[in-house]
Amino acid sequence: MLAFIVSRLLQSVAVMLAVSFLCFVLFNFVGDPVSNMVGQEATAADREEMRTELGLEDSVGMQFLRFLVNAAHGNFGKSYRLARPVSDLIVERMPATLELVAAAALLALAMGIPLGVLTALRRNTIDSQAVMTFSLAGVAMPTFVIGILLIYVFSVECKTWAPAVGLPGDWCFPSFGRGETEKIGGWTTGLLTASGLKAIVLPAVTLSLFQMTLVLRLVRSQMLEVLRTDYIKFARARGLTNRAVHFRHALKNTLLPVITVIGIQVGGLIAFSIITETVFQWPGMGQLFIQSVQFADIPVMAAYLVMVSLIFVTINFFVDLLYAAIDPRLRLDRAQVGTAGG
Amino acid sequence: MADTTALARFRDSDIWWSFRRSPTTVVAAVVTVLFFMGAIFAPWVAPYNPFDVKSLNLMDAFTPPAWNSGGSAAHLLGTDNQGRDVLSAILYGTRVSLMIGLAAIVLSVTTGVLLGLLAGFRGGWVEAIIMRLADIQLTVPAILIALTLDGVARAALPKHVHDEIAIWVLVISIGVAYWPQFARVTRATTLAEKHKDYVNAARIIGVPGARIALAHVLPNAWGPVLVIATIELALAVIAEASLSYLGVGMPATQPSLGTLIRIGNAFLFSGEWWIVIFPVFALVILSLSVNILGDWLRDALNPKLR
């Protein structure tokens, strides 16, 4: 087990080094960092001074080493677009994204698992077929389309239909922003105010729908498989109630792979929050990233990529360990288990 | 004669049988074909040419769909803020979306299949590097990879050049993002096939390695590759639409479905819902149909799952 942990750890470090190197190459060789930073009227001497100041005259190896040391200290330089330290920008935006991702993950689990169990147990009924059709829509509908449709129904048209069905006019959801936020230490949270809670509903639903259908389908297929096994037949033969068989014996054995897949999918949620944040103008890291892509603001892009990769690699590392701890057969190679991506 | 027998064989095949048995699949196939026809023949089918600035009339702007009050039969699905016919814009947009999706999938199939064959035949460190790379890439969502590549292209190229070649930037960004699945399935097939007698026989009579890989082993991998390609075509179309919606894809001068949705999004709040909702429907129906086809193809080619 120790050898396994060490080899996975080395692999994670290798991935992080590779990502950092890519970002470093981006940072230093795509476009000219100097002309990105100085104004139009800078003289050749100014530029030369800037080059020395930035250390662009050193060897590539030296520059990469410095980049790594700086990155480890959370120093990614200044944004070209906003002329502020990148680390400040990221720290400011992080709470919004993490709250959104957490809400979406909870929602995906809270809806996906029960619906998966339901469709597995009541296989050929109309209600479970309706759920399966709906789940296909969840796979086929792009995140931003879900967001637009939700805004249209629950935010724009809502003002027409809500009073008609007897709901108060202010029942409708806001279509953008985080609502009122409160500051606790360095963390701005929208979860403590009524308007903040209301504002997170539509974005969280939008972000969670794809993952929800994924959980649903996974729980369903696992459940169907487990229900066929001998120990379930034995449990039935012992005369246990359906409820005990389904929930105590079957569901528990279904959840292990679900938990690990969810772990991997949290990374997916962070990536897809880029889209959701754009649709709802949610002031998080994803919105910052997309604005940086549009303006070719390389320092912010590089910092975001390193951050997100770090999150991915950490999650993957722990998921690997969890797998290995749970199932010794998987200690050899997890590559056989497909990881879904969208 | 060969044609009729091939047709007869197709009629007797499992695939045709399972196709006819599923009404959803038939509908999905018809819809997909319609979309492709509409895209290919857009210049002839579309009532107007949305790129012809001379034909645009600002007086026609914001015409609602024909069945709404104020709508006109001349613009079935209404017009946008510049008087562009929404139906025509959708047809041309579908053309751009499908073109990018198909080109991206061709690129990722080519890359993935070649790397998969290489990994399967060579083994050793070549295989280790290729497959670890595939593993790593699979854990990173494709959209993030595509976004990064697009951002790099944006930084490296001047703005007007980037707009001109936006379509190829998208094809490469999306194509690169989807190769690992193809590499995996091709490698698996190669590993299963490479010690079989027909491969040994070919080797003994001196057929070169590349020819064995491409002409003898590769045909065995086409089934699963086709299934993945169909499902990933839907994903690629969605990825393109997402990128264009985010404003880093096709420019407004050459809109894809995603660009149309991005442009129309602003009018959702002012009541001109048709400018955004119809392109949204087109995108969803297209991706849903291709998804259903892909699911069916997977089940039909893999009897074990039935």
From TrEMBL, chain A:
Membrane topology category: Multi-pass membrane protein
Domain spans labelled ABC transmembrane type-1: 94-323
Gene3D superfamilies, A to Z: MetI-like (1.10.3720.10)
Pfam families: BPD_transp_1 (PF00528), BPD_transp_1_N (PF19300)
Localization annotation: Cell membrane
GO cellular component, one term: plasma membrane
One GO term (biological process): transmembrane transport
Family label: Belongs to the binding-protein-dependent transport system permease family.
PANTHER family per record: ABC TRANSPORTER PERMEASE PROTEIN, DIPEPTIDE TRANSPORT SYSTEM PERMEASE PROTEIN DPPB-RELATED
UniProt protein name: Binding-protein-dependent permease
Lineage of producing organism: Bacteria, Pseudomonadati, Pseudomonadota, Alphaproteobacteria, Hyphomicrobiales
From TrEMBL, chain B:
Entry's transmembrane regions: 26-46, 96-121, 133-153, 165-182, 221-246, 273-297
Protein name according to UniProt: ABC transporter permease
Predominant subcellular localization, coarse grouping: membrane
Region forming the signal peptide: none
Ranges for domain ABC transmembrane type-1: 94-294
GO cellular component, one term: plasma membrane
Natural source organism: Reyranella soli
PANTHER family for this protein: ABC TRANSPORTER PERMEASE PROTEIN (PTHR43386:SF26), OLIGOPEPTIDE TRANSPORT SYSTEM PERMEASE PROTEIN APPC (PTHR43386)
